[in-house]
What we know:
The chain is mainly β and 124 residues long. It has a domain at 2-87. It contains 1 helix and 10 strands. The protein has one helix spanning 83-87; strands at residues 2-3, 17-18, 27-29, 47-51, 58-63, 71-73, 78-79, 90-93, 101-104, 118-120. The chain has a 3-stranded antiparallel beta sheet with strand order 1-4-5. A 3-stranded antiparallel beta sheet has the order 8-9-10, with no helix packed on it. A two-stranded parallel ribbon has the order 2-7. The two termini are 20 Å apart. Residues 11-102 form the PE cleavage protein A C-terminal domain. Residues 103-124 are annotated as: Disordered. This is PE cleavage protein A C-terminal domain-containing protein.
Amino acid sequence: MQFGGYDPAGPYWSVTSILDSGGNHGTIPGIILGSGQTSGVVPPGTVISISTDNNQTLLYSYTTTAADSPIVAGNVPMNTGVMPFALGPVYISKNPSGVGTVVFDYPPPPQRGRAHPGLYSQGP
Length: 124
């Protein structure tokens, strides 16, 4: 996860995350913001980029607004909230057994900072 735009060579935070389509805007562990903020919401205008665990493939990216900013919480896993589902098709499979697969099936980005096709597998 990166803030301020995706850079495969730049610093990133490796966080435990939950893919959640429940309709909320998700949560971000406050410690990774680097601002000392521990509550409230991520400031509107913040670019959030989600990539694979090695930061080499951008899965999706978006700029927060007052209407869709994730909640800043304590030391909790990141919760995606509805945003990846709002950006385009997301396919979830229980295969391979015990691991599962999530596919973010977005069109190629016309510019930096837009959603990007990617594949992310997460075990139990």
